[in-house]
Amino acid sequence: MATAKKDVILFYPEGRRPGNFPHQTGTAYTVSLPLSLLPLAHVLQQRGYNPIIVDARIQDYRKVDLKDALCVGISSMSGVQLLNALDIAQHIRHERGDLPIIWGGIHPTLLPEQTIQHELVDIVVQGEGEVTLVELLSHLEEGAGPEGVAGVVYKEDGKIINNGRRGFMDLNTLGPLPYHLLPMPEYKDDDFTLNTSRGCPHTCAFCYNLAFNKRRWRFQKAELVLEQLEAIFHQFHPQAFIFYEDDFFVSKQRVREVCQGMISRGLTLPWQSTCRVDYASHYEPAFLELMRQSGCRRLTLGGESGSPELLARISKGTSVDQMIETARRCKTVDIVPIFSFMVGFPFETEEDIQQTFNAIDGILGANEQAQINGIFIYTPYPGTPLFHDAVANNLRVPVTLEEWSHFQFANIANLPWIPRERRSLLNTIYRLSRFPFYQQNGLSYPPLLALEGDAPFLDTLPRHAKRLAYRLMQFSARVRWQWKFFAFPWEWNMWTWYAERAHIW
Ligand code: B12
Ligand code: SF4
């Protein structure tokens, strides 16, 4: 237990490139809550520390008072968030060179030994941070080092010491989360995001889960979920709930209890979460009806590919029939299924891509309300089984945090195995698919309209000109998709040129 309240400052870095930050541009940019840091702050408070969360997407990290800090923590995914994480670490080092800088989150966990080598990283916390962080802090308070603390990686006399991963915590010990530590009115999103389970038992070879969560699904009991929903409902009056987690539906019984509880407690706001098609395609009408009654309006589903061979290669454990059946069943209860696909896998053939197109047409044929969130270009993330295939196929592997910070999501340049003639095709279908090409009112991606204040040149256009440009691109997307004609993609090349400069994906 801490004797005096010491500040522990936790930073959530911006995920966009410098120059596009809302507090610099005055953009009406909505960000979701920093869910990675809230549970850490919760346990720190319980142990008598004074956690301070700095969400650098909406707050200026340079203005934070470091005077009474015991240490700082920085969270990061792979990619551009690391660039901003490094900026924060540089600032801390400059202002208070004596403060230990602790890194945690997805990227440091997947590559702990590479991460610790950076001079701006003193300690890496691997995996779930709650228990490890409090134990580490009690060591630091006593003036001791991180020796013996399970879950950490650190440097000693130029050597890297990895204390190994720690077991997972009981999520039922968490909550209510300390939302008061955040500038809640600044989160302009009316949808309230929360996390009620962690991990996933499945084995998809492109996903961080195997390495990070080791197939272990942990969850909060329905009663605790409902208590949180109720508190959020009355305190923040949200318009909707989004369950941001790997696999919300692992326990159907838990979902049933949550849905029943939402109905009986009058918490029936619209809600959405991610689901798998092998689950949803087997849900009986009564269960789907219960979900709908409790507020479920959308399910996001990883279709990934329309090729059975490829689905097997990536260990997805699902089929195209299940995708179509899911679309069909969702239609009966008016839940919108939103599918995502990928192209660009190391072993993908033209035939596989064609099968993905067919699967999408099959889904949209079964349910005209179904949405395609995108046909994304596969991104090889570190620590995933498929990463080895990518390396074997000449992926240029970043070896420093700086290099990882330039590793972009859905970027054709990451995929050296794609033959030159196919690059344009994949890029075009990726860009095109992000414009809702069958629906008039796409749920996910009106980029020309939404990114006001973010994109050079387009900002200066009046809104009706942007709307017209958007409609033209949408028209092109529809026509090209209908004829599966992706040659001479001059308009999509122009859009790609622009989107890359405006950092739109
Ligand atoms: C919500 C979410 C988002 C939100 C943003 C995050 C937010 N507002 O909090 C949005 C929608 C913006 C988003 C965007 C993206 N995301 Co995202 N996202 C998620 C998701 C679904 C949940 C994250 C979360 O809150 N988890 C719950 C918390 C409790 O877990 P946690 O973050 O791991 O935190 C724990 C530990 O990591 C650790 N920890 C974390 N930080 C720190 C810091 C310190 C100091 C310490 C000690 C410990 C510690 O302790 C925490 C508590 O135990 C995850 C999948 C998942 N389930 O994690 C993907 C995930 C993180 N996203 C991913 C990706 C790829 C992206 C995108 C690139 C594209 C995309 N597919 O959406 C963009 C990138 C945006 C950017 N450049 O910043 C990947 C990351 C892969 C990687 N190698 O980094 C994930 C893992 C999805 C996946 N299955 O591949 N994402
Ligand atoms: S992609 Fe989804 S289902 Fe597959 S392992 Fe990751 S979280 Fe689980």
Question: Could you describe the 3D structure shown?
Answer:
- This protein is an alpha/beta fold and 505 residues long.
- It has 3 domains: 7-162, Response regulator (Rossmann fold, 3-Layer(aba) Sandwich); 190-418, Alpha-Beta Barrel (TIM Barrel), CATH 3.20.20.70; 444-505, no CATH class.
- 40% of the residues lie in helices and 15% in strands.
- The chain has helices spanning 22-25, 38-46, 80-95, 106-110, 112-116, 130-141, 209-213, 222-236, 252-264, 277-280, 285-294, 308-313, 320-333, 350-366, 385-392, 401-405, 420-433, 447-450, 463-483, 490-502, and strands spanning 7-12, 50-55, 69-75, 101-104, 123-125, 152-156, 159-162, 191-194, 197-198, 218-219, 240-243, 271-275, 296-304, 336-343, 371-377.
- The strands form 3 sheets. A 7-stranded mixed sheet has the order 2-1-3-4-5-6-7, sandwiched between helices. Strands 8-11-12-13-14-15 form a 6-stranded parallel sheet. It has a two-stranded antiparallel ribbon with strand order 9-10.
- A hairpin with a 2-residue loop joins strand 6 and strand 7.
- Helix 13 runs parallel beside helix 14.
- The chain is globular and about 70 Å long.
- The chain starts with 6 loop residues before the first strand and ends with a helix.
- Mean pLDDT is 91; it is low at 20-28 and 440-446.
- Bound molecules: cobalamin and iron/sulfur cluster.
- Cobalamin binds at residues 10, 15, 32, 34-36, 39-40, 73-75, 77-81, 102, 104-107, 109-110, 125, 128-130, 133, 195, 207-208, 244-246, 381, 409.
- The site of iron/sulfur cluster (SF4) has 9 residues, from loops.
